[in-house]
Amino acid sequence: xxxxxxxxxxxxxxxxxxxxxxxxxxxxxxxxxxxxxxxxxxxxxxxxxxxxxxxxxxxxxxxxxxxxxxxxxxxxxxxxxxxxxxxxxxxxxxxxxxxxxxxxxxxxxxxxxxxxxxxxxxxxxxxxxxxxxxxxxxxxxxxxxxxxxxxxxxxxxxxxxxxxxxxxxxxxxxxxxxxxxxxxxxxxxxxxxxxxxxxxxxxxxxxxxxxxxxxxxxxxxxxxxxxxxxxxxxxxxxxxxxxxxxxxxxxxxxxxxxxxxxxxxxxxxxxxxxxxxxxxxxxxxxxxxxxx
Length: 292
Ligand SMILES: Cc1cc2nc3c(=O)[nH]c(=O)nc-3n(C[C@H](O)[C@H](O)[C@H](O)COP(=O)(O)OP(=O)(O)OC[C@H]3O[C@@H](n4cnc5c(N)ncnc54)[C@H](O)[C@@H]3O)c2cc1C
Prior knowledge:
This protein is an alpha/beta fold. The protein has a single domain (3-288), classed as TIM Barrel (Alpha-Beta Barrel), CATH 3.20.20.220. Helices cover 47% and strands 14% of the residues. The protein is built from eleven helices and nine strands. A nine-stranded parallel sheet has the order 7-6-5-4-3-2-1-9-8. Strand 1 (14-19), helix 2 (25-39) and strand 2 form a beta-alpha-beta unit. The two termini are 20 Å apart. It binds flavin-adenine dinucleotide (FAD).
C-alpha cells in the first residue's frame, strides 16, 4: 500500500494505529493480544516505529513482517537514521522493500541512551538528508514528521516549517503530525503549511492519556502543551483511580478526533503505546456516531 492512494478520493477518513516492537517476552505476548484487538477494528493501516541508532532494528523488522504477512494488515514502516551509516540504512530499507513494504516514514530520531553509542561518521544529520537518500535509491512512498507546536529543538516555528517544506521538496508525499492536546495547534499548523506551499496530506496524530506519568514524560520529551482542560479535569480525579483516568483520556481523545474529522482531516492516527483499550473505545464511539 502506498498510503497516499488512500487519501486520493476524499473518501471516509482513514483510521490507523502506531505500534512499537515489544521490549521483553512478556510484552511480546501482550502485544500479540493488542494487535488482534486492533486488527478486529479493520484499520486502514498500522505503523511500526524504529528505535534511533538501530536499537529496535530486528524487533521492528519482525513486527512489520508479522503484521503484514501473518495478520494481513497494511503497514507503514518508520525509519530513523540517527547515527546510522549508509550500509546500515540500505540493509534495513532493502529488507523492508523485499518484504513488500511500499510506504516508509522517514525521521531523524534522537541520540539513543545506549552507553558508548558512537554515531557512524557518515550518518545523516537531518530527516531531509534521509528523504533524499531514500528517494535516490528506492521507490517508496515517503512520509515526514511535522510538529504543530514546533519541534523542541527548532530555532523558531517558522524555521521548522521551512525545513518541513524542504522535506516535501526532497520527496515526502505525506506528513504525520506529532500529537497535541488542543486541536487548534493542528489547525493552525495545517493553515501555515498550506500558506507556504506544503500541499501534501497531513495526518493528525492523537495520543490518548494512558497515565499521568506517561503523559508528563512524553510531553517533556516532545514539548506538547498540557492544556488547562486536562489540568483541571485531572485535578478532579481521585489519585490512583486508573479506571476513571483512562475514561477521562478516552473521552478527551474521542472529542478531539470528532472535531478533527468534522474539520475534514484525511484520517486519524492513534498513538497506541501498544495498548488497545482506548483505541477500541474511541473508534467504536466514532463509528457509532457515523464519523468513521
Ligand atoms: C509521527 C512521528 C513518529 C515518530 N517516529 C519515530 C520513530 O519511529 N523513531 C524515532 O527514533 N523517532 C521517531 N519520532 C521522533 C523524531 O525522530 C524526533 O522528533 C526527532 O527529534 C526529529 O525527527 P525529525 O524527522 O522531525 O527531524 P528533522 O526534520 O531532521 O528536524 C530535527 C530538528 O532539526 C531542525 N532541522 C531540520 N532540518 C535542518 C537543517 N537542514 N538545518 C538545521 N536544522 C534543521 C528542525 O527544525 C528540528 O528542530 C517520531 C516523531 C513523529 C512526529
